[in-house]
Amino acid sequence: MRAIVHDSYGTAPEDVLRLEEVDKPTIADGEVLVRVRAASVDRGTWHVMAGLPYPIRVAGFGLRKPKYLNPGRSLAGTVEAVGQEVTGFQPGDEVFGICAGSFAEYVALRPDKLASMPSNLSFDQAAAVPISGLTALQAVRDHGAIEAGQKVLIVGASGGVGSFAVQIAKAYGAEVSGVCSTAKVDLVQALGADHVIDYTREDFADGQHRYDVILDIGGNRRLSHLRRVLTPRGRLVIVGGETEGRWLGGTDRQVRAQVLSLFVSQKLGTFVSSENAADLTALGQLIEAGQIKSVIDRTYPLSDVATAIRHLIDGQARGKIVITV
Ligand SMILES: NC(=O)c1ccc[n+]([C@@H]2O[C@H](COP(=O)([O-])OP(=O)(O)OC[C@H]3O[C@@H](n4cnc5c(N)ncnc54)[C@H](OP(=O)(O)O)[C@@H]3O)[C@@H](O)[C@H]2O)c1
User: Fold this and answer.
1) pLDDT digit string (tens) for 17-59?
2) How many whole angstroms from 85 Cα to the centroid of ligand 1?
3) pTM flag (> 0.85)
4) Residue 16: which domain range?
5) φ/ψ of residue 234, rounded to 5
6) CA–CA separation, 42 vs 172, rounded Å?
7) Residue 140: exposed, middle, or buried by beta-carbon count in 10 A (0-12, 13-18, 19+)?
């Protein structure tokens, strides 16, 4: 089968990723074989490819070189075969989920990160959902604990996670202000945000407005600036934010937030998304109910994964980038 492979870490996708013929995987008794029809790219894809920040290597992705064949993680496809111990899936089922190595024609995976594909989505649309959608759902529902009528600020509203977070927060009845760059203001408006703040022209932290919940997905603003526009008992959820740091990659701000949270009335925190089938199913229900949808910027063929990752890390993507397999 054809698959993207990388055998060393590197920051430039063009230097480390290659399309190769490799053996089709075989499955163990507890695994499912999926014919991948589409995969998607996210910031985590780049981190797994680059092995940065360094703690990601200790977290199971390989200390000196990549442990997994390729860095793709989100997928949608068709079940080809199931192991003897697998219940709940059978050949022919259309599924979406998270695995190690989704930039390939086939993948063998355990079914605990797999769910039935929403009936109203194409493979491309479904592949855009798993990691970004799960992260957005957990940020809004679990960590932001967003309730109807609350004022919510979403910093990084135009990207992979943000495009889902805006829609999910609206589905939960919040009044949403989305922060993004000029070229993406129209997108965030179309996602349903009540207010859109162009961070190149306006400072959302100037203290003019206060928010019950802030989801900081991409901003890297100082904690003091974010706290200034949070209500006295408000919640700040730091989802991410890219920095050049090879050791901490911006996570120092997340650690400081958690420590500070012990001493102030505001709740300041962060989380690592939990990859699980129950939340994929919950997302599928929101999608089938028409409350959220995938926003796809571009699709690329399997041979162009490096170009797709380059497009993302250059900050060009509006919503998600999908690889058609
Ligand atoms: N905690 C977790 O488990 C988890 C899971 C998934 C992802 N993440 C992290 O979440 C972050 C976002 O991931 P993603 O896939 O959504 O990335 P993405 O698609 O590249 O989106 C990045 C977002 O950040 C915005 N942004 C960039 N610079 C900004 C600035 N100076 N001020 C305000 N907004 C700015 C971008 O807006 P413009 O494009 O309009 O500039 C865009 O909306 C990454 O750091 C990723 O590692 C964390």
Assistant:
1) 999 999 999 999 999 999 999 999 999 999 999 999 998 899 8
2) 39
3) yes
4) 2-129+294-324
5) -75, 170
6) 25
7) buried
Q: Is the CB of 311 under 6 A from ligand 1?
A: no
Q: With residue 83 as reference, give the H or E element that holds it.
A: none
- Residue 178: HSE in the Cβ half-sphere, 13 Å Cα cutoff: 29
Ligand 1 mean position to 90 CA, how many Å? 36
Ligand 1 neighbour 155 (Cβ under 6 A)? yes
Residue 281 lies in a domain: no
From atom 8 of ligand 1, which residue's Cα is the shortest distance away?
A: 240
The verdict on residue 275 lying in a domain is: no
Residue 90, helix vs strand vs coil: coil
Written as six digits, the tokens of 116 are 């039935």
Do 75 and 161 fall into the same domain?
A: no
Give pLDDT tens digits for 290-325: 999 999 999 999 999 999 999 999 998 999 999 999
Which atom of ligand 1 sits closest to the CA of residue 319?
A: 19
Dihedral sign of CA atoms 218, 272, 130, 33 in order: positive
